[in-house]
Design brief:
Blueprint: H1 2-17, H2 19-32, H3 47-60, E1 69-70, E2 75-77, E3 80-82, E4 87-88, H4 93-96, H5 139-156, E5 157-160, E6 171-172, E7 178-179, E8 185-188
Antiparallel strand pairs: 1-4, 2-3, 5-8, 6-7
Helix pairs in contact: 1-2, 1-3, 1-5
């Protein structure tokens, strides 16, 4: 739950920072869902919103060093021998900010997950939940929660910064990277 709520905090901050992206998400919500309750079946019909949520996760890079793992057998990785039992700490930042996979790795850019026709595209370097057998057990639940909460909140509110507020995207460092505290104005959106 902590990573889902932190991702949503990043999402609100980024929507305040980039109001044109927020408006585009709201337009897609109005077109696809209208005033009905968001459901998971809507996600495939909403490529822009899906791309924005993916980009929030990529940009936020919540758990940059992942969690420690241990090799289960002898492995050679990029010329380095790692004997069975070696403790490793993967760097998710190295893939989430890789310029070979992301055109603007240091920018918030939802087009990382859209093709030229506006269709959602997967990106093999999108690994906010890690990969393999040891990836996050809550990945499917988190994806569902993020879509439903984010969509429902943007369906009902426009998020703005208070007048004169400066929006700083520098993360607070901890086990997870959290956005700095900001005041948020949630304006009802009907």
């Amino acid at each position: 739950m902590e990573t889902t709520s932190t991702t949503l905090k990043w999402g609100f901050l980024l929507m305040m920072k980039y109001p044109e992206i927020q408006r585009n998400v709201q337009k897609e919500i109005e077109t696809v869902i209208g005033s009905a309750e968001p459901q998971m079946i809507h996600r495939k019909q909403m490529p822009y919103t899906d791309a924005v949520i993916h980009e929030i996760q990529r940009f936020a890079n919540l758990v940059p060093t992942n969690v420690p793992h241990q090799t289960t057998q002898d492995v050679t990785l990029k010329g380095f021998f790692l004997p069975k039992g070696t403790h490793i700490i993967p760097s998710l930042t190295s893939v989430l900010r890789d310029d070979k996979y992301f055109k603007k790795p240091d920018d918030f850019y939802p087009q990382h997950f859209l093709d030229s026709d506006g269709n959602f595209v997967k990106n093999e370097a999108f690994l906010p939940f890690s990969a393999g057998k040891r990836s996050c057990a809550g990945e499917n639940l988190a994806k569902m929660e993020l879509f439903l909460f984010f969509t429902k909140l943007l369906q009902n509110f426009t998020f703005k910064a208070p007048s004169g507020a400066k929006l700083d995207l520098t993360a607070e460092v901890g086990f997870t990277l959290r956005p700095q505290e900001h005041d948020i104005c949630a304006i009802p959106h009907y």
